């Protein structure tokens, strides 16, 4: 953590909208990401959440960890339901049945709900231009049901449905680039964030809330259970993902790219891969291949940021 | 206070299984999951709040004298606070067996 940010936590909102007592695993950075997102959004928020880890751990009947109106909907339609909420509230405000005020409409989903199952509905909601935010918590597999691969799982990761062994390297396909898909919808705001950089994350969410029209925020959420790392290291691995260039932090405002955090020199990708149990079968030549791919993707983003 | 799930009859459930009490997950004490607890050295603590910001369970609070302390009712003992503390004033200590 940088020195100048050490005392900044005092300035952060003190109220908790995602309370203690939720059932997330020890060291869950996704629960931390939800907590920070809610801190940034504040009280006037309606959340629709797709099925996934965060839904399961926050709302086992009869308890709920939410201090804001919250609805659980099926895997595919979080973005469709929040579109309906937004349209409905707009009408109620116009008719004077609800006092006029600024409400943040937020849909949340995991990478499975976003990249695989809810892709079409997300695309529809972005295209219709509702004033909403979609937050994707990307932990790179279906962790809730026991670590099955999703289309957001990176190349080489071992999961229960893409196990590594004598013949298989684990996941054989590359990670789906969701932020780029959102950018392709020409929406006003797209950003990537990581809870290891909390101020950056909260700033982006606030920006997304203040922009009129659909916004998409993609958050890398480290999962100690699925990534097979010690629970205390989940913040550290998020930071490594950014410092190695695996997950660059950038934002796209009206089609203009900007890097929000640029490491002075990228660390070798091995630093990020070596400690994780899901990558431990990788040989040096596999890591070289991943390094080549990461450099290529990183240069693409840098060139887009430079081309302003 | 919400009843435990096994004591609730189906007639008592609201239509759509709506929960009207906000944030009542607080009644579920996740502290019982813990095998190690964070111990803060209050003299070394610089009152920065990094541990509070990074706690996934929102289980850290500020004491009246300014230093931060974990709420052991909810702390799951993940050790993020001890790892991220910039001055290293938090140590994880194994829970004693009863």
Can you characterise this structure?
The complex is a heterodimer of chains A (308) and B (98). In chain A, helix 2 links the parallel strand 1 and strand 2. Helix content of chain A is 37%, strand content 14%. Chain A is an alpha/beta fold and 308 residues long. Chain A has helices at 29-41, 53-58, 78-94, 111-117, 119-128, 178-183, 198-210, 224-227, 234-243, 269-274, 284-306; strands at residues 45-49, 70-72, 104-110, 133-138, 189-193, 215-220, 249-253, 256-261. Chain A is built from 11 helices and 8 strands. Chain A has one domain: Rossmann fold (3-Layer(aba) Sandwich), CATH 3.40.50. The relative contact order of chain A is 0.12. In chain A, helix 1 packs across helix 7 (198-210). An 8-stranded mixed sheet of chain A has the order 2-1-3-4-6-5-7-8, sandwiched between helices. Chain B is of the alpha+beta class. Chain B has a domain at 28-94: Alpha-Beta Plaits (2-Layer Sandwich). Chain B is 10% helix and 16% strand. Chain B has 2 helices and 4 strands, in the order E-H-E-E-H-E. In chain B, strands 1-4 form a two-stranded antiparallel ribbon. Chain B has a two-stranded antiparallel ribbon with strand order 2-3. Classes of the chains: A alpha/beta (308), B alpha+beta (98). The A-B interface holds A 1, 6-7, 9-10, 12, 16, 18-24, 26-29, 31-32, 35, 58-68, 195, 198, 224, 230-236 and B 2-3, 5, 8, 13, 17, 19, 21-30, 33, 46, 48-50, 52-59, 71, 73-74, 76-80, 82-84, 86, 92.
């Amino acid at each position: 953590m940088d020195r100048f940010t050490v005392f900044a936590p005092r300035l952060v909102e003190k109220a908790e909208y995602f309370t203690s007592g939720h059932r997330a695993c020890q060291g869950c950075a996704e629960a931390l990401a939800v907590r920070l997102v809610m801190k940034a959004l504040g009280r006037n928020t309606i959340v629709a959440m797709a099925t996934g880890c965060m839904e399961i751990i926050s709302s086992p009947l009869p308890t709920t960890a939410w201090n804001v109106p919250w609805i659980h909907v099926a895997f595919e339609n979080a973005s469709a339901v929040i579109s309906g909420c937004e349209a409905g509230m707009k009408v109620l405000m116009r008719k004077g049945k609800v006092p006029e005020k600024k409400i943040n409409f937020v849909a949340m989903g995991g990478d499975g709900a976003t990249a695989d199952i809810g892709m079409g509905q997300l695309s529809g909601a972005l295209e219709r231009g509702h004033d909403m935010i979609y937050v994707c918590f990307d932990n790179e597999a279906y962790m809730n049901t026991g670590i099955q691969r999703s289309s957001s799982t990176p190349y080489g990761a071992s999961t229960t449905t893409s196990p590594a062994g004598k013949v298989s390297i684990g996941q054989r396909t590359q990670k789906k680039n969701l932020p780029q898909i959102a950018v392709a919808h020409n929406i006003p705001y797209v950003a990537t964030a990581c809870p290891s950089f909390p101020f950056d994350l909260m700033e982006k969410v606030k920006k997304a809330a203040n922009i009129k029209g659909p916004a998409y925020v993609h958050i890398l959420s480290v999962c100690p259970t699925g990534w097979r790392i010690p629970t205390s290291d989940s913040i550290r691995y998020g930071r490594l993902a950014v410092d190695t260039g695996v997950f660059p932090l950038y934002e796209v405002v009206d089609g203009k790219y900007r890097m929000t955090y640029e490491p002075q020199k990228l660390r070798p990708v091995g630093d990020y891969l070596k400690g994780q149990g899901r990558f431990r079968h990788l040989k040096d030549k596999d890591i070289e291949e991943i390094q080549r791919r990461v450099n290529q993707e990183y240069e693409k983003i840098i060139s887009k940021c430079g081309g302003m | 206070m919400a009843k435990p799930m096994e004591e609730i009859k189906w007639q008592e459930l609201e239509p759509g299984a709506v929960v009207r009490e906000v944030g009542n997950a607080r009644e579920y004490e996740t502290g019982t999951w813990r095998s190690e607890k964070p111990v803060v050295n209050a003299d070394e603590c610089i009152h920065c709040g990094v541990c509070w910001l990074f706690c996934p369970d929102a289980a850290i609070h500020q004491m009246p004298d300014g230093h931060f302390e974990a709420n052991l009712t909810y702390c799951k003992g993940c050790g993020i606070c001890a790892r991220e503390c910039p001055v290293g004033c938090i140590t994880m200590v194994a829970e004693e067996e009863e």
